[in-house]
């Protein structure tokens, strides 16, 4: 997401870098480029106008900083303004004083609403809540079943009308679900409502009736980021028809432009609370405007990377690896394999590297990275005997050929792996002996 915008903006800034001071003409030219970049990213025109006007005003104003050169100042201003347009502070869920907290989802059919209900429920469960998923989309065939399957995968409870009792009344189902949640001690209720392919008065009325019946603590408007400018009109229609407290953007993985994300807040006055970035239940997180702005400007998103690692690895695993380092125990190919698999679990390598600052410019190279390369390395190590994994020095020429055949790679690949492993082993020894990395502060030169 945001690749085109990111590329355009970074190239605008790089042309400023050589300037010692920015004239009004320089600022005007830069603002023109920023305007084009935003329009190309499918950001709504009123948002573009307001954004560029603010950047221009601030860049021309007296914001003279000793610490920053002119190009850096413009980057800082654009960064600040991006955070602002994306919603400022991260908007977190508000919980009801007396449980259950009721969250109602609204949006068009196909926006990813039902999938999102499952993702949100799973996310809440991992934070220690006991959510109840409620199926109030009684129109779309299979919607109830889809929600039940998602609930099972998310390991949460579901409340749905019993099959065979006709279509049922969604308002009644919603009302009964709150009572049920109280009885069964569910502290969160997530209500999935019916959507239509287009904006439709009947759908709006039904959503409004459910809203009036259950008085949700949060109404979340779910919108597919890939529909671009249409996201804005749809959001406005839902704002008038049902009203909502915050927005959830789905399918951000598929949208290179991201204009919807940059427009929706400005146009509706409601912040983006969550972002959905894939078909898996885990592809979901709070939306952090500051981190997103940094990503767009290719300043990296280290915080998200760290959180992802913390979520993926339990403390035991981390402690085990750290213990191995501190004890100075010999680092073996088994450890190498284990570490590699840990990294692999964090997700596609190119996504991980993409969160590092400055990596945006290397997108072509990143796209060439194939996670299957790691699987090949794993296959090579698995074709070795336990003794060989402990001490690869004993692997002779004919064994290398056998291993290559066994894992379906060339002998050169086996050789490369062994060489790389010896380097890793050396580095581990250095870390264990407390000398640090060469070139690092306090490390060996
Ligand atoms: P609903 O009609 O609004 O309930 O939409 P669904 O939840 O059934 O989703 C419609 C389609 O979009 C399904 O095929 C989902 O797998 C897919 N989908 C949902 N969220 C995402 C997402 O964040 N990324 C991608 N790539 N696909 C998604």
UniProtKB/TrEMBL annotation:
A Pfam cross-reference name: SRP_SPB
Keyword NADP: no
Name of the protein: Signal recognition particle protein
Domain SRP54-type proteins GTP-binding: 271-284
SMART domains in UniProt: AAA, SRP54, SRP54_N
Gene Ontology molecular functions: 7S RNA binding; GTP binding; GTPase activity
Gene encoding the protein: ffh
Main localisation: cytoplasm
Keywords: Cytoplasm, GTP-binding, Hydrolase, Nucleotide-binding, Ribonucleoprotein, RNA-binding, Signal recognition particle
Domain notes from UniProt: Composed of three domains: the N-terminal N domain, which is responsible for interactions with the ribosome, the central G domain, which binds GTP, and the C-terminal M domain, which binds the RNA and the signal sequence of the RNC.
Cell location: Cytoplasm
Oligomeric and partner information: Part of the signal recognition particle protein translocation system, which is composed of SRP and FtsY.
Protein family membership: Belongs to the GTP-binding SRP family. SRP54 subfamily.
GO cellular component: signal recognition particle
Catalytic activity: GTP + H2O = GDP + phosphate + H(+)
Function: Involved in targeting and insertion of nascent membrane proteins into the cytoplasmic membrane. Binds to the hydrophobic signal sequence of the ribosome-nascent chain (RNC) as it emerges from the ribosomes. The SRP-RNC complex is then targeted to the cytoplasmic membrane where it interacts with the SRP receptor FtsY.
GO biological process: SRP-dependent cotranslational protein targeting to membrane
Binding site for GTP: 107-114, 192-196, 250-253
């Amino acid at each position: 997401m945001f690749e085109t915008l990111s590329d355009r903006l970074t190239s605008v800034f790089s042309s400023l870098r050589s300037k010692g001071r920015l004239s009004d003409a320089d600022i005007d030219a830069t603002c023109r480029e920023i305007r084009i970049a935003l329009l190309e990213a499918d950001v709504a025109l009123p948002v573009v106008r307001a954004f560029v006007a603010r950047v221009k005003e601030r860049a021309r104003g007296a914001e003279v900083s000793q610490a920053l050169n002119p190009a850096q100042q413009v980057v800082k201003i654009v960064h600040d303004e991006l955070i602002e347009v994306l919603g400022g502070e991260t908007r977190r869920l508000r919980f009801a004083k007396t449980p259950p907290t009721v969250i109602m989802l609204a949006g068009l059919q196909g926006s990813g609403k039902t999938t999102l209900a499952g993702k949100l429920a799973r996310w809440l469960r991992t934070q220690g809540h006991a959510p109840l998923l409620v199926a109030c989309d009684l129109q779309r065939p299979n919607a109830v079943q889809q929600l039940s399957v998602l609930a099972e995968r998310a390991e949460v409870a579901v409340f749905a009308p019993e099959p065979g009792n006709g279509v049922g009344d969604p308002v009644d189902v919603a009302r009964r679900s709150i009572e049920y949640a109280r009885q069964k001690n569910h502290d969160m209720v997530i209500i999935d409502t019916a959507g239509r392919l287009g904006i439709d008065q009947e759908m709006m009325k039904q959503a409004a009736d459910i809203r009036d019946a259950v008085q949700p603590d949060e109404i979340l408007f779910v919108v597919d980021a890939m529909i671009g400018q249409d996201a804005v009109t749809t959001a406005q229609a839902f704002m008038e028809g049902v009203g909502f407290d915050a927005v959830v953007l789905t399918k951000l993985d598929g949208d290179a432009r991201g204009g919807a994300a940059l427009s929706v807040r400005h146009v509706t006055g409601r912040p983006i609370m969550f972002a959905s970035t894939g078909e898996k239940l885990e592809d979901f997180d709070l939306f952090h405007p500051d981190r997103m702005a940094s990503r767009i400007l290719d300043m990296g998103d280290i915080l998200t990377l760290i959180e992802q690692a913390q979520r993926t690895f339990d403390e035991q695993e981390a402690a085990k690896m750290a213990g191995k380092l501190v004890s100075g125990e010999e680092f073996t190919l088994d450890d190498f394999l284990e570490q590699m698999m840990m990294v692999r679990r964090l997700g596609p390598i190119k996504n991980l590297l993409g969160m590092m600052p400055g990596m945006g410019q290397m997108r072509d190279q990143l796209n060439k990275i194939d996670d299957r390369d790691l699987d090949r390395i794993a296959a090579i190590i698995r074709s070795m005997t336990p003794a060989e994994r402990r001490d690869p020095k004993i692997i002779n020429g004919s064994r290398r050929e056998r291993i290559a055949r066994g894992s379906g790679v060339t002998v050169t690949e086996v050789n490369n792996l062994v060489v790389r492993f010896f380097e890793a082993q050396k580095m581990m020894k250095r870390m264990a002996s407390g000398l640090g990395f060469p070139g690092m502060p306090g490390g060996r030169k």
